[in-house]
Amino acid sequence: MQFALNEDQIAVRDMAREFAAEKIAPHAIRWDEEKHFPVDVMREAAGLGIPLPAGRMRVSQLDAADDSLEFIGEDVIDHTPKDETVRVALGSAFDVVGERRQVAFSIDTNAERMEETIEVKVRNHKTEPVDVLVRETLYRWTENQIVETTHAYEREDARTVHFPVTIPPDGEAVVRYRVRYTW
Predict the structure, then answer these.
(1) Is residue 163 within 8 Å of 142, Cβ to Cβ?
(2) End-to-end Cα distance, the chain
(3) How far apart are CA 56 and CA 86, in angstroms?
(4) 143 and 181 in contact (C-beta within 8 Å)?
(5) Domain with CATH 2.60.40.290 in the chain
(6) How many secondary structure helices (H) and strands (E) does the chain include?
(7) For 118-158, what is each residue's pLDDT tens digit?
(8) Residue 83 contacts residue 94 (beta carbons within 8 Å)
């Protein structure tokens, strides 16, 4: 059995090492002491522009209790060309739960319009705040407009919106929005 890296794996390793040496190592001690990792550096690392081979991706995070690395999840990814986005599903958090329900619906066929109000409740049972991305698919029609909302949102495409929400420890957030579909 051979465990040698192939050319693509060597390229990924070398690029990651170079980036870490230039951008992370000079600041690592200070960032560790501050328990902070700058978002701009993470974004730059995410945009290295390298292809990723198919395989299992494992993710760990620093455990504040004993400063050891703690495994938090894994996923299998497909071959990914350079400069493309990789989504890694790390599993479900049992202590962060959500409920979605439709609270209002109306249709006016003469005006060629339909509206519905959706409410998503997310509860955090952890002892620290969590950032959650509430992802909603507006599946009824491609011509849609969010006409009322409790939170700012980002539109991914014609039918997908994201509501970034920070939920306090042992707290709850309620995302409510009204969408109008026209045809």
Answers:
(1) no
(2) 60
(3) 12
(4) yes
(5) 96-182
(6) 3, 9
(7) 999 999 999 999 999 999 999 998 899 999 999 999 999 99
(8) no
Residue 11's nearest CA partner among 53, 57, 47, 56 is 53
In degrees and rounded to multiples of 5, residue 119 shows phi and psi of -125, 130
Structure-block tokens of residue 128: 């620290």
In CATH, what number does 96-182 get?
2.60.40.290
Total number of residues shown for the chain:
183
CA separation for the pair 82, 52 (Å, rounded): 7
Single pTM value for the model: 0.62
Spatial neighbors of 139 by CB under 8 A, at least 6 apart, are: 159
For 117, residues 6+ apart whose C-beta sits below 8 A from its C-beta are 102, 103, 104, 105, 148, 176, 177, 178
Question: In sequence order, what are the residues at sequence separation of 6 or more whose Cβ sits closer than 8 angstroms to the Cβ of residue 21?
Answer: none
In this structure, the number of other CB atoms found within 10 A of the CB of residue 141 comes to 15
Map tokens 């319009």 to a residue.
113
